[in-house]
């Protein structure tokens, strides 16, 4: 009919594309950390964990971290991997103790690439254990370089007393999930030794040790 526009010529509003969710959905990831673990997360996406309240982090080269765990045994506290770095969770305050510990262990004069992340730092949140088959190797089923749990946290178990801490020196191994975690001094000593070996290997151009 004349004067009546064809339906094909009437503009139809098109909704803006939505940002695709991260692994398992950013909302689900945030809820798991905040409700199941009681860990604080930072605003915005992707989800990042607030360090320094419930835990601190020791960040080392992945090669050194793997070698340290071979000597310490299977991790009894949470450990994450992101790209070529390993992040080991320790009791809050551990990052502040790290420089003094390294000096006491006579590693203070060397650049070991052993970094402590404490209050004010953020950590990329790995996908929760329920997001697909678990455990899984880093990079398998996740975007390349995304953080994944090597040993995920367990709801109700990952408190300050279950993580490596200096208090373990006087009170014995800290307990979490029914088993003992290595004290902070032993953990730092082992990590520092392996970081130094990686540093020397790289300086000499030798290939990495086989896992």
Task: Describe this entry's structure for a reader.
The structure is a single chain. The chain is an alpha+beta fold and 211 residues long. The protein is 28% helix and 18% strand. It has five helices and ten strands; from the N terminus they run αβββαββαβββαββα. It has helices at residues 26-37, 62-72, 94-104, 168-171, 184-204, and strands at 41-42, 48-50, 56-61, 79-82, 85-90, 115-117, 122-124, 148-151, 174-176, 179-181. The strands form three sheets. Strands 6-3-5-4-8 form a five-stranded antiparallel sheet. Strand 1 and strand 2 form a beta hairpin. Helix 2 (62-72) packs across helix 5 (184-204). The longest helix is centred in the C-terminal third of the chain and has 21 residues, at 184-204. The protein is globular. Residues 6-24, 132-141 and 168-179 have low confidence and may be disordered.
Largest sheet, in brief, is: 5 strands, antiparallel
Q: Could you tell me the strand content as a percent range? A: 15-25%
Summing up helix and strand content along with how strands pair, one would put the structural category as: alpha+beta
Strand order within the widest beta sheet: 6-3-5-4-8
How would you spell out the order of helices and strands? HEEEHEEHEEEHEEH
Overall pLDDT level: 80
The low-confidence parts are: 6-24, 132-141, 168-179
How many whole angstroms does the radius of gyration measure? 22 Å
Q: What's the total count of β strands?
A: 10
Helical proportion, percent range: 25-40%
**Measured distance between first and last alpha carbons:** 77 Å
How many distinct helices?
5
Oligomer: single chain
Coarse shape? globular
């Amino acid at each position: 009919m004349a004067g009546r526009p064809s339906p094909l010529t009437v503009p139809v509003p098109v909704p803006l594309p939505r940002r695709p969710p991260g692994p398992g959905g950013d909302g689900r990831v945030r809820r798991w950390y905040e409700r199941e673990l009681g860990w604080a997360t930072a605003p915005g996406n992707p989800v990042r964990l607030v360090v320094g309240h419930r835990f601190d982090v020791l960040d080392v080269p992945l090669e050194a971290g793997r070698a340290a765990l071979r000597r310490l045994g299977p991790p009894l506290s949470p450990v994450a991997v992101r790209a070529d770095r390993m992040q080991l969770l320790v009791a809050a305050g551990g990052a502040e103790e790290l420089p003094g510990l390294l000096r006491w262990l006579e590693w203070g004069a060397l650049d070991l690439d052993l970094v402590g992340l404490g209050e004010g730092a953020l950590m990329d949140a790995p996908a929760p254990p329920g997001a697909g088959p678990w455990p899984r190797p880093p990079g398998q089923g996740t975007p390349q370089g995304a953080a994944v749990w090597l040993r995920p946290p367990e709801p109700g178990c990952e408190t300050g007393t279950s993580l490596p801490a200096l208090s373990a020196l006087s009170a014995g191994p800290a307990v979490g999930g029914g088993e003992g975690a290595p004290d902070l001094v032993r953990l730092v000593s082992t990590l520092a030794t392996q970081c130094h070996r990686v540093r020397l290997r790289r300086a000499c151009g030798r290939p990495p040790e086989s896992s």
